[in-house]
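BUG: 3D viewer hangs when loading the predicted structure for this chain

Environment: internal workstation, default settings.
Expected: structure renders.
Actual: progress bar stalls at 90%.

Input used:
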Amino acid sequence: MSSETLIIQAGLSERPRKSRWPAKLDILQSVSGLLLALFMWGHMFFVATILLGYDTMWEVSRFFEGYYIFGKSHPWIVSIVVACVAVIFIVHAAMAVRKFPSNYRQLKVFRAHAKSMRHGDTTLWIWQVYTGFAMFFMASAHLYQMMVWPQNIGPFGSGDRMWSDGLWPFYLVMLLAVELHGGIGLYRLAVKWCWPNVSRTFLKNLKWAITAFFLILGFATLAAYMKVGYEHRLHYGEPYTPIWAEPHHAAVEGVTK
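Structure tokens produced before the viewer hung:
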């Protein structure tokens, strides 16, 4: 009697195989996290254009609204982009929460083990859990705001939001959470998918260097928007339009009317 026949008669051939879904979901988590990290970097450079002047920030904002293609701003384009980012964010959060401690007792046991082992990567993962939990609420609120009121994105609109609306503490905390979470996530991706011939020490140093760069850029940008908001506080709600663009805007409004 052959070995294959014995296996069939013993019923071993009917034993369930290991599911590949955990691996597939892990890949989905990694890809969505990478996309969000790349978007985060691009978004940071976009909002930092205020450091180059009001006109530069206005021009970049209008570019994303199709101003230079259609001759008129269409904020709904930004809403669609933000909605797509929100979907990726939700998918990533759903994949990541599978690995979070499900209750306080599990978290307490995990922290005790991490403290006894004193393993650097484990400590980084704990911080990723904390910052991810904070981002679940803060980033969701920010994405909703940008999706519903995209027309308020601009030098004065963003400045008013920071100063007159008093949201600068919210954005300060979110900046810290996003940069720490994203930096740790990219480091873990590089380690997990085996970046060839690169040591973990180098990757950690690179991670902290990138995090420090974006935090400094973020702090400078936040301070700039607070300054803009403070100077514009008596004219809250008025949009910014460069002098050179005002006649064109008037002509466009006249045609549309």
